[in-house]
Every structure is written in structure tokens, then in C-alpha cells.
Amino acid sequence: AHLARTKDYIRQQGFGLALDNAGLGSDPTQSMRDLRPDYIKIDRNVSRNIETPIYAATVRKLVGVGEELGVKVIAGGVERTRTMENLWLLGVEIMQGYLFGPPSLNVVRTAKPAPAETDWRDAGLSSRALSNLADALAASIRVPPVPAGQDRLSL
Length: 155
Description:
The chain is 41% helix and 10% strand. By secondary structure, the protein is an alpha/beta fold. Mean pLDDT is 74; it is low at 113-118 and 138-145.
């Protein structure tokens, strides 16, 4: 009852709830059931090791749970363009880490591919984030739409 009242109060104040450090070995099912989070935050150690099959499978599973329950998935610890690309291919659309800039109170959106006519100067991104975004977009990105029931790596 206390947890329910606390969750309600936090949400009434305009905040969301996050399940932090996801993917580090404990099954998030119990926490998901009790907390009903708005966000699942993938631990930075999982992000940094995304090229390892077990971590890729973990992220794929968390993204699937997020999609099924309507919970947004955030990847922390994104420091390299390749990490960002791999996470994106697995379905993670919200990321944070030094690739986008140092910790800040300002919100920076992910490097989600956008139409060529998008003017990123209107997005409120820092010049460093814009530079990283431009590098990432130039290096990679022609991501096809993902058919229902598939992740981006299975295309």
C-alpha cells in the first residue's frame, strides 16, 4: 500500500519511474510487476558489451518486454558510435552516455535516423551532441523499417 501511494504521488508530480540497472543478472519480472515503471534503464555494463551475444540477447529481451508493456527502454553508458548503432539495431531508441555529452540537466534525444530535411539546430542539442550525431548518421544509417515480430538484427 505504501509503495502504491508513493508511486501515485511521484506520478502526480509529473515524474516517471525507472527500473535501473536492468540486465545485470537479476530477473526484472518481480520489480516490473511491483513497480510498473515507465522506463527500463539498461545498465552501462550491458551497453558496453553489446557485441557479446549474451548481452545482445539480454537487450533484445528487455526491448521486447518494454514494447509489450508500453515501457520505454533507455540504454546507459553509450560512449562509442558502434555501441549506439548496435543498440539501435536491437530496438533501443533512447540512449545516454558520453557519446552524446557529459552528464547534464539538459535532455538530449537519441541519434534516431531522421529524414534528410530535419533541422537538428531546432532540437536543442549541444554542439558536441550534434557533432556526434552527425558522425553517427554519416557512418551508418540506412535502417529499414522493422516488420512486426522481428528485431532490427534479424533483417
